[in-house]
Amino acid sequence: MIETALASLERLKNVATELSGYEWVRRLLLIGKASRAEKKVKETLEEVKESKEEKEKTKKIKKQKEKAKEAKEAIEKVRELTLSQYESIQGPVVIVAGGCDPSIEEQMKAYRYLMQESFKEYEGTVISGGTKQGISGLVGETGEKYRETIRTIGYIPKLIPPDATVDRRYSELRKTEGTGFTPMEPLQNWIDIISAGIDPSQVKVFGINGGMISAIEYRIALALGATVGVVEESGREAAKLLQDEKWVDSKNLALLPADAMTVRAFIGLGASKLAADIRKTLAKEIHEEYRCTKKDSLKTDDPAMADWEKLPVNLKESNAQQADHIFEKLCQIGCTVQKVTDRKIRLLSFTEDEVEFLAEMEHGRWNVERLLEGWRWGEKKDTAKKKSPYLVSWSDLPDDVKEWDRATVRKIPEFLAKIGLEIRREV
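Predicted structure:
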């Protein structure tokens, strides 16, 4: 389908300058072709690994080589469109999209705290619009504040509209050939990302509000397999995704609360998976603590209250992801772990401030996990419909529910002691 569309465009090449949007469509198709080709390479690699018979494996290897060649050619076509005067983009990458219209300037300023707290510990590249207006301006301000850890790249047209001001606080400004802001800018940042060898599925797009350009950004990102998180309450195009039947049920779309810890977890401070045996041991301990904490407050027929052996696979994985995140939490409060074999492990006690901070982190992580599994906010919990009243900001969570997270993080020293690890504070 993409090849057919590109062939049709090629026949119109001689009149391209007279066709509004011709170049946008061509670039979008080339990006889509390269992204799809890369996915095919991964799929065929998996097929090779799963092949058991030698004859079948040889056939799969040949197919994989063909797909790799196609992918290389498709990516080279995209690389021809890169802004070659700039250095290659380095991952990890977060694209921030949103409202930049001067008419909503004051409304967007309300998200300053959310932006700065969300990116406080982030290390990587942040891409946005490159002007001082709205969300783009908040990115410039945030990048300036955390200049040692964040590299901000702004994409701006060659001719800036009179109501926009270039933001020199960005680490780098990249100019397209556009006149005024158009889809050319988000398309160009994807061209540069793919040309840098970064898998779109590893890119996060964080959205607040937004107009037509943001609407395009959100949908391009979803189509390429990036993970998109929008602040639902921010309105305009972010909220309209809820009404878009083609995208609202996308597995890589999260409707985020305006909560810094949730956004932090979303943009990927995250954690790598632990070794399988350690992961399972910690996950079981976390689950048992969950059952003890909630045995008086939840129905006994709740699937989350089942014994470990009877626990649904998705809930086992939820506990395992919480286990993965333990070391990220400890890092945030200046703690490390050490293996102890020659003496009894000393159990560290967290301060109440640390408990509150870690519990808030855990709630943010849980929010993102649930939202990316298709859960949505609802007045009452409904497992079948994936509704929960707890998918809210930490500040809006009832205190008795907060206590569930507090109880779990207080037990972290005991969880780790089960696998011979002792927590200590960094000097």
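Summary: The two ends are 60 Å apart (CA to CA).
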